[in-house]
Amino acid sequence: MKHIVWDWNGTLFHDIDAVVGATNELFRPYGLTTLTADDFRSVYTRPIWVAYERMLGRPLHEGEWELLDEGFHLHYHRLMLECDLAGDCRTSLADWERSGGSQSLLSMWGHDRLVPKVAEFGIDHHFTRVDGLRAPAGGPKAEHMVAHIAALGVDPRDVLVIGDSVDDADAARHVGARAVLYTGGMTPRSTLQTLGIPVVDTLAEALDHA
Q1: In angstroms, rounded to a whole number, what is the distance separating the alpha carbons of residues 133 and 107?
Q2: In this structure, are residues 71 and 52 in contact, taking their beta carbons and an 8 Å threshold?
Q3: What whole-number percentage of the chain has pLDDT above 90?
Q4: Which of 43, 79, 164, 197 could disulfide-pair with 18, CB 3.0 to 4.6 Å?
Q5: Distance CA 18, CA 37 (A)
């Protein structure tokens, strides 16, 4: 492998507590039971509105998704201030750079918030490109991966995608890249292991597959 495309939320950025906290705040008016991290992982999927429908036990009403998405991000942007990078994020980025490989970042979080947050942590210099979401939220990552790979000008056969969700694996498969999935995010290990691709508990382990 010559290039790594990293995911952000739940991979490089350890924000599971903010995600679960924001989700609980969002659904408190609905009278739902407070979720633990494991509870959230058991219902999480993308597109995220499907997870919300699982939680509610019904389809979303017309316009309800947009209100829920806005509400979630209001809570999330407050709670994420208490979150940090994954424990071995900095060393993993530096190790891959020293090995001579290139790396980039593709996230389904809003681009205008992603770029300054990555810079705030002082890790932006590791990436040849940082792309966040510039379209309506909630959809799959695959087409965004197509655009990201095209902008990089790399051969997808030389790319390893490291993320924490089925969506990351699907996006890698869609462009013809390989994937490794990390258990520090939103998806339970049991689900990740059904995909037939490597599953790791640390980012350093993910590099072993590069």
Answers
A1: 7
A2: no
A3: 94
A4: 79
A5: 10
DSSP letter for 9, please: B
Paired tokens of 178 = 């390989």
- Backbone torsions φ then ψ of 10, nearest 5 degrees: 85, -5
Q: Hey, what are 99's tokens?
A: 């090995």
Dist CA 159 CA 171 (whole Å): 12
Give the domains, in start order, of the chain with CATH numbers: 3-15+84-207 (3.40.50.1000), 16-82 (1.10.150)
pTM of this prediction exceeds 0.85:
yes
**Under 8 Å between Cβ of 26 and 72:** yes
Pairing state of beta strands 130-133 and 159-163?
A: unpaired
End-to-end Cα spacing for the chain: 5
Rounded Cα–Cα distance for residues 51 and 162 (Å): 22
Q: Which two tokens stand for residue 148?
A: 């990201």
87-123 pLDDT tens trace: 999 999 999 999 999 999 999 999 999 999 999 999 9
Q: Which residues face 177 on adjacent strands?
A: none
Show the tokens assigned to 120. 């705030």
